[in-house]
Amino acid sequence: MMRGRTKTPPGLYGIRMPLTRRGVLGLAAASAVAVLAGCSRALRTSTAAPSPAVSGDAGTPAAPSASATAASSPVAPTTAVPAPEPTGPASEIVRGPATRPEVALTFHGAGDPGLARELLALLASRNTVATVMVVGSWLAANPSMATAIAAGGHEFGNHTWTHPALNDLDAAGVRTEVQRCRDVLVSLTGSAGATFRQSAAQYSTPLVREVAGSLGYRTCLSYDIDSLDWTDPAVATVRRSVAAATAGSVVSLHLGHQVTIDALPGVLDDLAARGLTPVTTTRLLRA
Question: Is-above-0.85 flag for pTM?
Answer without folding.
Answer: no
